[in-house]
Records
---
Amino acid sequence: LPAFINGYDKPALNAPEQRQRAALTMAEEDDARIRILQSLRGKICEAKNLGPVSGPNRQRDLCTFCTISLDQEEVFRTKVFDKSGSPFYGEDFYFEIPRPFQCLSFYVYAKSVFQRDLPVGKVSIRKDDLCKYSGKEHWFSLHPVDPNSEVQGKVHLEMRLNEVITENGSVGQHLVVRIIECKELPLINGQNCDPYATVSLVGPARSDQKKTKVKKKTSNPQFEETFFFEVTRSSSYSKKSHFQVEEEDIEKLEIKVDLWNNENLGQDVFLGETRVPVKILRNDHIHKAWYLLQPKGNGSKSKSDDLGSLRLKLTYIEDTVLPSACYTPLCNLLLKSPDVKPISASAAHILGDTCRERYEAVLPMVRLLLHHNRFVPFVSAVAALELDNTQEANTIFRGNSLATRCIDDMMKIVGKNYLAVTLKPVIDEICDSNKTCEIDPNKLKEGDNVEVNKENLQVYVQKVFSSITQSSSSCPPLMCDVFRSLRHLACKRFPGDPHVQYSAVSSFVFLRFFAVAVLSPHSFQLRSHHPDPEISRTLTLISKTIQTLGSWGSLSKKLVSLTFLDEISSNVSKESSGLEDAVVLKEGEVQKRAQGRKRLGKRNFKKRWLRVTNRELSYHKHKGKEALCTISVKNIQAVEKLDESAFNRKNMFQVVHSEKPLYVQAGNCVEASEWLEVLGQVTRCNEGRLATFHPSNYTSGAWQCCKSQSNSAPGCKPCTTTMLANLQLDIDCDRETERIFSFLSSNDTKLQNMEDACASMAVYQGPQREQEEYSKFTIQEPKETFQTLKQLRNIMEELQRQHNIRNDTTAQYGSLDNPIVGKTS
C-alpha cells in the first residue's frame, strides 16, 4: 500500500497518453515564451481653470507641474510652469511599462518652496479603460487627491469554516482566516514600507479585529498568520448531523482586511483594504484567492469642477508576443518585398497602402526592414514609384507619401545619435542663454531692440547651420546610402535638371530632419522638457530659417552646403557609424550604494548623477561636475537586476566589472528598465561578459542568494542575453511583426476591398471608370497584387488562430494574475 500511494506501482503510460503528455509539456514551454509587452505614448497638453490649493485667489500664484504614476509609483514629471491657472505643459512622453499595473494617474501639483508640494487634483484611469481614450485628445476633470484613495497592491487570503466541540459537548462554529501574503504594495517616501494587516469580522452588531506582525522594509510581505472568529451561537452536537451555518448570520457577516504602513513616530498610513462576504463559503468549504486592495469609500468628497481640467493625449499599447516561429511566415513575406515587381504588389507596400491613415503603422515595418538590412532596396523602389508619378522637379518628395514616411522614420531611428552629436551642444547653448530673437514688430515686448534681436538670431542660425554643414563625417552610413539612392533616382527621372539631385537630398536632411529637430528638441531627446514659450519662439525662427537655407534656391549660392550634400550622398564608405565621438546614451539622478561599506543603512546610499556614453559609465556628485568614478564600457562584465531583498529597496540593478560591483537604485521601474536596456546594449559585445551572476549581495561572509561563502564564487543565475544587431537599432523583430499583424487585422476590410479591386481589374476589360472606385489603392499589376493579398490573408488567419489558442487559457479569476476586485467601504 505505501508503495502504491507513493507511485512506485503506477502503470506505464500507453503511446497516445505519452504523446498527449509530451504535447502538454511542449504547450507549457511554448506559453512560457509568450510575452506581454506594454508601452505608453502621449502628451500632457494643458490644464485649465486650476482651482486654489488653499486660501482665496491662490490660483493667481500657482506654479504647477504634472506627474504620471503607475499605480502609486511616479514615472514621469514635467517641468514647473510659472504662475498660471491655465498652464500649457506641452510635454510628450513615451516609455515601456516593465511591470503589471492597475491604474494610470496624472497629478497636478502646486510647487512649494518651503514645504511639500501640494496636490491640486488628479486624473485616474484604470488600465482596462485606457483603450477608450487611445490616440485622441480628451479633456479630463481633475478630482481631489484623497490619501484614503491612493492605494495599490494585492492580498492573498484563505477562509474556511470549522466546527469546534466545546467542553460541555456542544458544537461551535469558527471562521478561520489566513493572511498569506501581499504583492506590489506602494513605496512610502520612495522606500519599501513596513506593512501590517488588520483582520476584522464585521456584522450588524459586532466588529472583532485582530492584527498581524509588522514586516520590515518590503513591498511583498509574507504574513502566513491565521486568525479565528466565532461566527454563530453554540448548539447541541446531537441536534446537528453535519455542519451548517445559520442563514441570518452568514448573510450579514463579512471579513475586512486593511493594510497599513507602520509609522513609529507618526500616524500609520493606509495602504488599502478589501472586504469578503462570509456567505462566499456557502458553496465552497474553503475559499482561497487573491484580492485587489481597494480605497476607502468614505474619503473626502469634492466637486471636481472646482479643481479644473487637464487635456491629455494617450496611446496605450499591449502586445501579446508569441514564440518566434509563429511570426516566421509573415516576417518572410514582408522581407521579400524589395524583390517583388512591381513594388506596389509587395506585402510591405500593401501595409502602407491599407493603413495610410495611421501614420504609426509604417514604423514597425521600417524597423523590421532595418534590422534585416532590407530597408535601402525597399525605400529605393518605393521612391522610384513616387518619382514616376511626379511631374515637376521642384515638387519631389514634398508630400506625405509612403516613401517620405519611411525615410522620416528611418532618420529618427538611425540618426538619433547623429542629431545628439551635431545639434545638442548648440541647442543647449540657445536654451540656457535665452537671448531674445523676436523680429516680428507685432510680437516685440516693451524695451526690446529689434536690431539686437536680429543679431542674436543671425548668430544662432550661423552656429546651427555651421554645425550641420560640418557634420558629414558623423552621418550614419545607412542614411548616406539612402541619400545616394535618392540622388541617383532623381537624376534618372529628371535628366535635364542638374540641380534636382541636391534638392532630393536637402528636402530630407534639412527640411525633414534637422529643421524639425531644432523646432522640437524634446521630441528627439535633445532636451528633457518642452522649452519655455520664449525659447520655443526662438527655436521656431531658427527652424524656419534653416528650412529656407536648406531649400535649393539658397543652397545653390553656398558652396559649403553643396559640399555637405555631396559628402552625405557620395560613394565614399565610412567606417564610422556616428559613434566614434563620445555620445551620451542616458544620464540621470540615481541612488548609489557607497563602495566598500560593510554595514547597511540609509547613509550608505547617496544621490549621484549617473552618465553612460558609448565609451564609459561614470557617476558624479552633481550634473556637470567632475566624475567621481569612471568605468570603461569595455570592462563591464554584466548588468543585471538586483533582488529587492538585497538592500530592501526596489528598482535596483548592479554593474559587475573588474572591481567591486556597482549597486544602483533607479528612481522608478521605468527608469530601472531603461538603464538596464541601455547598459545591456552598449556592453553586449564585450569579450569578458559573464555567463552567470549573483542576484543578491555578499554580506556576513556569504552570498545571500546561494549562500556560497566564497566572495569569488561563480554566479548562481544565468545572465540576460542580448541579441540585437547594433546599438542604434534596438529592435525586437517578433514584437514589430506582431504590431504589423495588429495593424493589418484592424484594416481587414480594406484588405478585402483591395482584393476585390484586383479581381475586378483583372477581369474587366472595358473603360477604366471602375478603377475610380479603388483609386485609394496603388494597383499596378492586379494579378501579382491579388496573389500577395491571398498569401497575406492566409498567414493572418493562421496567426490569429495561434492567438486564439493561447487566449483560451486566461488566468483563473482570483489568481495572482487575475485578482478579485472586492467590495469597498
---
Amino acid sequence: MGHHMNDFRSILSNFGVEVQGGCEVDLNIPTTMMDSNVIMENTITEPRDDMEFDSHEDAYSFYKEYAKSVGFGTAKLSSRRSRASKEFIDAKFSCIRYGNKQQSDDAINPRPSPKIGCKASMHVKRKPNGKWFIYSFVKEHNHDLLPAQAHFFRSHRNADSLKNDVRVRRRKNLTAVSKLFGAYQNVDCLESYMRNQHDKGRSLVLEPGDAQILLEHFMHMQEENPKFFYAVDLNEEHRLRNVFWVDAKGMEDYTTFGDVVSFDTTYFTNKYKIPLVLFIGVNHHIQPTLLGCALIADETHYTFLWLMQTWFIAMGERAPRVILSDQNNAIKAAIAEVFPGTRHCYCLWHVLEKIPRQLEFLSMWHDTFMLKFYKCIYKSWTEEQFEKRWWKLLNRFNLREIEWVQSLYEDRIHWVPTFMKGISFAGLSTNLRSENLNSLFDKYIQRETSLREFIERYKAILEDRYEEEAKANFDAWHETPELKSPSPFEKQISLVYTHEIFKKFQVEVLGAAACHLKKENEDETTTTYTVKDFEDNQNYTVEWNESKLDIYCSCRSFEYKGYLCRHAIVVLQMSGVFSIPSKYILQRWTNAAKSRHGIGERLDEVQSKVRRFNDLCRRAIILGEEGSLSQESYNIALCAIKEALKQCAIVNNPVEIDVRNTITVTHAVCAIEVNQCSNISNEIVPDPKVTNANKVPRRAGAGKEVASNENSASNKGKVPLPEVVSVGIQDGFHQMYVEKVEDK
C-alpha cells in the first residue's frame, strides 16, 4: 500500500506547474535576458542627428538595414546634384508606402502599387567636407511593420544569403515573438534548443492548481464510464509534457463517423491560454462530434507523433480515410508515419485565412488578387489548367520568391480542390472558419479561458452534443420530411437521408430548375457538359460516365459536402437517370448510419430497412412511455425487449457471433481518499517501466490477468509509440496498454 501511495504521489508531482522541462531556459516567463542579448546583437541603431556617412549610398545602405530590422521596405525617393560640381549633394530615402498611388484612367492591367500615404523617410545632405549627415528623419508609419517577413520586400531580397537562411531568420525572430507570446510557445524560435533536446525536453505549462483539476476530472470521468480513455506523456525528466483524453461517446462515434476527421490546432496556434487541440468529426445530422482532446507542450514532430499514435490506439487502431489539418510540416510528417494509407488534406479556411498575413504587402490589391486566386483554385478542372493559372498568378503579382507561396505549391495535392476528386470531406473543409463545424466549439473556448473553466465547459460540451443528437434522432423518428417538388430524386432521398442532410439536398433539387446544360463533347465512355447556373450566374463542367455511373462536377459539392449538386442532378435527369447512384449516397448521412450493415447496391432494400427502423423506434418510444408507469409494467417491457433482442439476433446471425473490438486501458489506482490527492509535491517521478509500443502487455484487471493476443503484437509496419505513461483509477499503477477483448 505504501509503495503504491508513493507511486501515486510521484505521478501527481509530474502535474506540478513549478518544474520545467528539457530546456535550461525558464519557459514559463518571457525570456527577457535572452531578448536583450539578441537585441544587442541583431538590432540596427535608429537614425540619429549626429550620424555621418562617407556617401549617400552608405547612408541608403544604413537606412535599408534599419528598415529590415524594423520591418518595412525602402525606396530611393529623390536625389539632387550640384549644378557647379555635378556631385550629389542631397538624397531622400523612404518607406515603399511613401506617397499616394497614381494611376492613369486608361491603364491596362496596372502593376500593384504599395503606396498608401506613409510619411516615413530619411533625408540626408552633403557637408562641405564630403561627409553626409541626416537632415531629417520621420520614424512614424501609417501601417503595420513586419520584421519577421522583411526579407520578402524587394529592397531586402538581394541581401547576404547567409542572413536570409531560414534557420538564421527563425533565431532572429525569437526576439519579437518572445515579447508577445513567451518563448515556450514558439517552436521555430526554439529550434536550437529543441534540436539539442531531440524535441523531447519540453514540459506542459499549467497554472497552479490546474494539474489536480485535470487529474480529478479524469478520475471523475472514468468513475462515470470505465471506457473513458486518457494518456499522459512524460519528458525525459518524467515531467508532464502532453495529455490526451476522449470519452466513450467519442470512441463510439468514431466507429461510425471516422471516415473524415479534422485535427484542429487553432486554439494552440492562436496562443490561447490553454494549449488545446481537438479531434473533430461530424455525425449524420451534420453535428460536430468530439473525438478527442489534448493539451500539448509544443508543435514538434515528436509531440504530434505521440499524439497521433495515442489517438490511433484509443480509436481501436482504425485509421480515418481522410484527416484534415492546418499546413504544418510536423503534423504532415506525423500523419504520414502513423496513417500511411490516410489521405491528408489541409482545411481550406486554414490556407485562406493566412493570405492577408502572409501577403500583407498586397493589401492594396487584395480583392483583385483573391478574384484571380479563387479562379485558379476553384475553376481549374484539370491539373494542367491549375498549373497554367497558378504560374500566371505568381508572375502577375511577383510572388515566385515568396517562401509561403512556394510551400503552397509544393503541398498543392493537400489543399487545391483540383486534386480532391474521389474523396469526401463531409462538410469539414470550408472557406471560412465561421462556416466550419469546428467553430461551434468557439462558444465554449475563448482566448482567456482557463483550464479550470474549460473542464467545466467540457462537461457542457458533452451534454449539449448528446442532447442535440438525441433531439435530431427524435425528430427523425417522429417527423416525415416535406416534399417540395415532384422530383423522383427528392422522393428517393427523403426515405434515406436524415432530415438535416435531406434539407440541404432538397435545395439542390429545387435549384436544378435554374440550370441549363449544353453538351460539349462525348467519347466512348464519358460525356462532358457545361451547366449554366442562373442562380449564381456561373458555368460548371460536369463529366458523366453512364456505364460506370460516375459523375463529377467542377463545383465539387460531393467532395466537400458529401452529396450531389444541382448541376449533376440536371445532367442525370437529362440522361434519363431518375435515381441517385448508390455510390453517391453515403451511409454516414442516412438514418441507418449506425447500422453495422452497409448500404449495399439496392436502394429499395435500404428504404425498406429505414421504414422498418423508424417504425420500430416509434413503437419503442410508446413502449417506453407505457412500461415506465409502474415497476410491474417496467419488468414486463424489459423481459419482452430482452427476449425480442435475443430472437432477432438468432434470426439475423444464425452462425456468426458479433464480436467487437473493445479498447481497455488500465490506469493507476491506489486505494486512497480523494482528499489525499490535494497535496501536490514537486518531486520528480522515479523512472517508470515504460511499455514497448510494439508489444501488447498483459491486462491488469480486477484481481486477475488475461493473456494478450500474441498475434496482435507482431503487426509489421507500425510506428513505434513514444514513451507513454497513463494515469487513472483502477487496481494499481500500470503502464498504458491496449488490448482487444470480446464482449461477453
---
Amino acid sequence: MIAAIGELSMMVRRCPVTFKPFRIFVAGVGFFSLCFLMTSLGGQFLAKRPGDSPFTMRAEVLGGQESRGVLRKISDMLEMIMKRMDALSKLGNTSDTHRLDELSSALDRIQPMGLVERIQAIAQNMSDMAVRVEQILQRSMASSRVREGAFGLCETPKDPRYPDCTSKMDWMRARWTSDPCYAFYGVDGSDCSFLIYLSEVEWFCPPLTWRNRTSPPTQQTQQAKSPKRQAAFRTDLSVLLEQVGSGKESLSFMKRRIRRLAQQWATAANHLDLKLGQRWRDQKKILVHVGFLTEESGDVFSPKVLKGGPLGEMVQWADILTALHVLGHNLKISMSVKELQGFLGVPPGRGSCPLTGPLPFDLIYTDYHGLQQMKQHMGLSLKKHKCHIRVIDTFGTEPAYNHEEYATLHGYRTNWGYWNLIPRQYMTMFPHTPDNSFMGFVAEELNETERLFIQRDKVNNMAVVYGKDASMWKLQGKENVLAILYRYMEIHGTVYYETQRPPEVPAFVKNHGLLPQQELQQLLRKAKLFVGFGFPYEGPAPLEAIANGCIFLQPKFNPPHSSLNHEFFRGKPTSRKVSSQHPYAEQHIGRPHVITVDFNNSEEFEATIREIMKLNVEPFLPYEYTCEGMLERVHTYIQNQSFCSPEVPFPPVNSSWALLRGPFTPVPDSRILIWASNVSSLSSWPPLSALRLLSSQQGQSCVEACWTEGLICEPAFYRFINIKEAFSALDFQCEGLESGMNHLFPAFSAEHAECSLQHDPLLFSCAGSSSKYQRLCPCRDFRKGQVALCMDCL
C-alpha cells in the first residue's frame, strides 16, 4: 500500500499539463489510500514504534478507542481536501497546475521509514493545507473570469435577432437563485453560465460559437429521425384498465364504465376498420393528464361519486381514454402532478426552467386544471409546446375569451380563458361551440333483442325525474308541475339520501335512491318519460334516456340563460345563450324524442303531458354518440388536425383571379357561395370543397347564420374568406377597407359602408353578434349524424 502511494506520486508528477484532471484524480487516489491506511492500521502500527515520539506515547496512553478518534478526525480533514480538489479539477486553468505539485510533493515525501512522523506532520498542518487549497481555488476562479472577460467570451452579445438577451442576462444576475432548476442546468452565478443557459437551455441569446456545440434536437427533428409507426385497432382493454389505476372512487367508476362498454367498443373498432380499409394511420404518442382528479386540484368529484355528485366529466374522460386506446395509440395516463412531471421530464425546482429534453409526446389531452398545472411546472416549455395540447372543456371557450390581450381590454377576461390557444384546441362535450372541436362521449347502444324487450315492457304512465341530488328538485314552481304530472303518471326519482328521505322530494314520488348504472338503465327502459327540472345543464343522462326509449321533457328558458343573467354561467369563457336545459337535444334531436316547453305555463305543460301519453317512440341514439361515431371523429381529428405547422399564407403571392368575386362562385338560386373548382387547390382541413360562404343578418352570429341554412360554421375556413374579394362576392359596396382586432371581423358596417378584415387569426370567431355588423361567415356541410365532420372529411 505504501509503495503504491509513492508510485502514485510519481505518476502525478509525470502527467503532462493537458491531463491535469487525471493528475488530480491520481493525487486524490493517493490521499484516499493514505486515509485508508491510517484508519485501518493506525492503532496497531503505532504500537510497534519506539516510545520516544510524543504522538506515539499519546496513542499508547489513550488507548485504541481514542487513537482511532484522532485518526478519524484526520480522515475527515483529508476528505474535505478531496472535495476542494474535486472543485479545483473542474477549472480549465492550466496556469495553476504547478500549485498541484505542492499537493503531490506531500505524497513523494511519504516513505516507509519515518511514516509516523510524516503522518504527524500532515496532521499538524492539515488545516493550513485546507486553507491553501481554498485560496488556490478562489484565485483560479478569479483569474478564469478575468481571462474570459479579456477574450470577450462572456460579454452579452448584441444581436437584433435576440432582442431580449440583455434584459434576460440582467434578470439572471438578480434572480438565478430563485429556483433550484437553474443550478440543475449548470448556472453558478457567472456570466458565462448565464449565457450558456440562455442560449442552450432557453432561446433568448444567440448560440455561443466558442462552445462548439450542436443545437439540441427539436420536436420536429426528433420526429423526423424516429420512424412512423402504423396504429392498429385494439379490442383488449386490460392494459388500459391497469393504466387507469385505483385508489379513488372516481377511477373505480371509470373502470366499471370501460368494462361495461368493452364489447360495444370492440364491435365499433371492427366496423371502423372495415370502413377505413387499408388506410395508413399514424400511431401517436399521447399523454392524458386528468387534472380535475389530481389531489393538487382539490378533487371534489371523487368523494361525491356515491353521493349523487356529477359524473358527466368522468363519463367523458373514461370514453376518451378508451377511444385513444382502441384506436391503437401509445398512451400514457397521469392522475397526479408527480406523474405529470415524470412523463414530461420536468427539471427539479419550482417550474421556472424548460423541460430537460424535447417533448416526448405528439399530443397531450388535459383539462383547465391540468393546463394550469402544466403552466406551473413546464416554464417556457408550455409556450413552446402548447400547439400539442388539447383541452377537454365541457362548456366551451369562445375566441374573445381565449385571446388574453383582447379579453383584458374588452371585458371578456374570466378565471378560465385567456390561454391564447387556437380555439379548435378546446374540445367540448356537445357540439354547441363550432369555434371549438367537438369531442363528445358515448351512450350505450341497444341490440335488436333489447329494443324488442323495451317495446314490450314500456309502462305508458311511468315517468322518471332527472336529478340525483336533492338540490336539483328546488325548481321554482315544481310543486305545480309535479302535481299536474302526477294526475297522469306514476313518478319515480333517483335522489341520493343516507338515512332520511330528502324533504325536497314530495311524498307521492317513488324514490329509489342513488342507483348503480345497470339498475338505472333498467328503470329507464320501463319508463316512458324522462323529466328535467332545468338543472344540470347538458349532461349525458338525457341521451341515455332517449337511447332507452324515453321521451325527454325539458323546460324552455325565457330569456335564455347566459353569463349575463345566470350565476352558473358567470365566469365561464362563453357568451353562449342556453335556450333550454339541453340545447343539443332540443336542436339536434327534437320531436318526438325531445319536447321543450314553458314549465311556467300550466296549460301548455298539461297539454304536452296529454300529447306524450298518446306518443309511441323507439329508442334513438345519434350516430355521433355511439362508440363507432366517437372513434370515427377522434381518429379524424388525430390524423388531420395540426396546429404546430405554420399555415400557408392566403391569398398566395401572384394569385390572379379573373373575377372580382375572387375564388368564390355562386350556387344557383341561393345566396350561398362555394369555392370555385378552377382555383388551384390549397392544403386545408376540412377540404375547401366543403366551404360555403354567406353573410349574416345584422345582430346575428355566424353560428346562427350557418345553422339557418342547414350548415355548420367552420372557423378553419376564416383565413380563406378574410379577403376584400369576399365582400365583392357577397355584393357589399365597400367605401372603406380596414383591418382590426375585433372578434366580429370580417364584417360589413352598413351605417358607414365600411368593410373590416380580421387582423389577428386568434380572433376568428363563429360566436358573437352586433346590430352594427353583417358578418362574413364560413360555413360547411356535415355528415348525417356527425356534425363534426364534413361530407369529404373522412
---
Amino acid sequence: MGCVNGCTTGEPVSIFLYEVAQGTEEQTQLAKAAFKRMKTLRHPNILSYVDGLETDKSLYLVTEPVTPLAAHLKARSESGGSGELEISWGLHQTVKALSFLVNDCHLLHNNLGTWAIFVDRAGEWKLGGLDHVTSDQGEPTSLPPAKVVNPDLEKYDPPESPNSGGEKWSGDVWRLGCLIWEVFNGPLPRASSLRSLGKIPKQLVPHYCELVGANPKARPNPARFLQNCRSSGGFLSNSFVESNLFLEQIQIKEPAEKQQFFQDLSENLDSFPEDFCKHKVLPQLLTAFEFGIAGAVVLTPLFKVGKYLSAEEYQQKIIPVIVKMFSSTDRAMRIRLLQQMEQFIQYLNEAAVNSQIFPHVVHGFTDTNPAIREQTVKSMLLLAPKLNETNLNQELMRHFARLQSRDDQGPIRCNTTVCLGKIAPYLNAGLRQRVLTSAFSRATKDPFPASRAAGVLGFAATHHYYSVTECAGRILPTLCPLTVDPDKNVRDQAFKAIKSFLTKLETVSDDPTKLAEIEKDVTASGQAGGSAATWAGWAVTGVSSLTSKLIRNAPAGSEGATAGNASAGIPASATGAANATAIKKQSSDWSSSGWDADDSWSNEKDVDGQGQSSPADEGWGNDWDDDGALAESFTPTPRSTTSSTAFIPKSDSSGQDGLRMASDYNWDSAGGKGTTSDLFSNVSQRANPASAMVREKKVENKAELAKKKREERRKELEAKRAERKAAKGPLKLGARKLD
C-alpha cells in the first residue's frame, strides 16, 4: 500500500492506497485482509482506522496522520538523531501493542519490522502492517507468508522451523529483536548481523539477547520482556516513559498526584522531544486547566511548551486559556501569570488586553498581598504599550496615585515611581507633564529613601517632557529641599538633577531661539503600542527584578533594608512579616533626622489609626498646591519593613534589629559620572557602613525623644476618645448615631 496525506473535514489524515491492477493475486488478498483487520482492531498503540473504501479497482484506507518509522528515523538522523528517550517510549508502545495481540487477542502479527511501524505527530509509535495477522489457535489460513510476497523479508524469519515446538510468540519476539537492531544500527544486511550489538544501549543488551536467542522456548513473552525492561535501571525506566504512562492514566489519578506531576513536569520538559510536548503534553495541560485539575502549577509547563508553537498556533491554543486565567480568583494563578507575562505579552492583541485582561489585572493594585501588588505594578511595563487612552491615562494613573500615597510598602511605592517614569512616553501629551510633576513631587516627600531617590531620578529621566516654565516654577523648587535630605545619595542625585535643569534654563536664556527645540517633546503625542523596541527590551529583561535593580546590595535595617538578601539567593516568597520594633525605631530615625511637623509620624490622623487619604488622593494633579507640594494631602503612614522582594530586617549580634541610615544606599551605579539621560535606567546601590554608623550615633537621642513624644500623644488621643464614648452612653436599638 502507498501512504499519502489528505484532508476532507479539516483534520489531517493519512490515506493508504492499493491499486488492484498493479498487484498480484497474493498481494490483493493480503491488502483485503489488512483492510478487514484495521476496521476490527482498536488499541491506543495500533494504527487508528478512520475510514475506508473498497472497490473493484482499488482499496482506500484512511487513518490518523502518520509517517513511516524508517522515514521518521532518517529525518531525525539528519537533524541530529533520535534521542534514547524517544526510542525508549516508541519501543514501549510497540511491545505493548504486540502483547495486546498475543495475550489478549490470541493473534500473531507475523510481519513485525520497521515497515510495520508508523509515527504520529506526537512522536508516538503505532503498530500497523496487519497484512499477515493470523490466529494462534492453529486455524488454517490461506494467507501467504511474508517472504513469498517479498523475498527480502526472509532474513527476518527466526532460524527454527515453524513446527519446532517453540512458544507461539517466539517468531514475533525474534522479529522484535530485529526491529530493535535496525532502530539503533540501520537496515539489517543479513541475519548473522544480529550477533553484532552495534549501538544498542547497554541497559537493553541482555533483554535484546533473550529476544534473538537460538532456543525459541527461552524467548520471553512480550509482556514479560516489557516488565524486565521496566525494572530499576532498565532501558524503559526513565522520566519520559514515566511521564507518558502518567498522562495515559491522568483521569484516574488523585488531585494531589496531578499537582505533583505537573510541578515535576516543568523540570523535565527541556529534555523531552518537541513534537511530544506540542501534541501530547499541551492538550493535557489545556484539559487540566479547563477542568480545574491542577490550578496554577500548569502555567510553568504551559509556557514552556508554548515556546515550540508558531505565532498562529499560540494565538489559537494558548491565548484563549490565558485570557480565561486572568479572571481566576486563585492568587497563586494570578501572581504566576504576572510573573511570566513577558512570555506571552507579544501574542496579546490590544482589544483583548483592554477588554478582557486589564480589568482583572487592576484588582491586583488593591490586593492585600504585597507580592501581588508589586507584580501588578511591574506588569504595567509590558501592558502599557497596549492600553487605550482611558485605561492608561485615567484608570492606571488613579491606581498609581493611590499606591504612591497610601501603600504601606516602601519598595512598592518606589517601584510605582520607577514604572511611571518608564511608561511616560505612552502617556497623553496633554496630561503627561502635570502627572509626572505631581507624581515625582510626591515621591520626593516619601519617608522611604529609595522612593525619594526614584522621584529625583524620575525628574531627570523625563526632563524633556517639561517646559522651561515648569522646570523653573515647580520642579526646581521641589528638588532644592532635597539638597539637605538626610540620605547622602538622595542629596547627590538632587544636585545632579538640579544642575541638569539649570543647564537647560541657562541654554534657553543665552539663546531663546533654542526654546522650540528644547520643548519639542513636551507636546509630542504618546508612542503607539509596540513602537518602543528598546523600552520593550528593557521590560523583558528587567521586569522580573525591578526592585532588585533599585535596592540591590543594600544593608538591612531601615525600610530601605533591601534586596541584598534577594541577590544572595533569598526568593521573594521567603519574605516574612515586618518586625514591629524595627518599624517603630525606623520611624523615630526618620522623624528626628530633618523632617518637619507635617512630614513626621506624629500626625494626629495617623496616630489615631485612621490614616485614610481624602478622595482627592485617588488622582494626581488635584491634591497639589501651586508649588507642587504635598504639605496637606500627603500624610505618610507608618511603613512596614517588608515587601514582596525579600526586605527582611537584619539582626545584629546583640539581638536587636540592626538599622542603617538611608545614606547607606549609593544610587549612582556609574560612580557619579553617569549622564542625566541614563540616571533612571542605571539605578543601583552600594553599602556604605562607615557613614551609617556615624549617623546612627548622632540621631539616637533625638530618635528616642521623638518616640516618647509620639507615644504620649497617642495615649492622650486614646483617652479623649474613651471620654467621648463614655459621655455618649450606649446606643439604643433603632437609634441613629450622629457625630
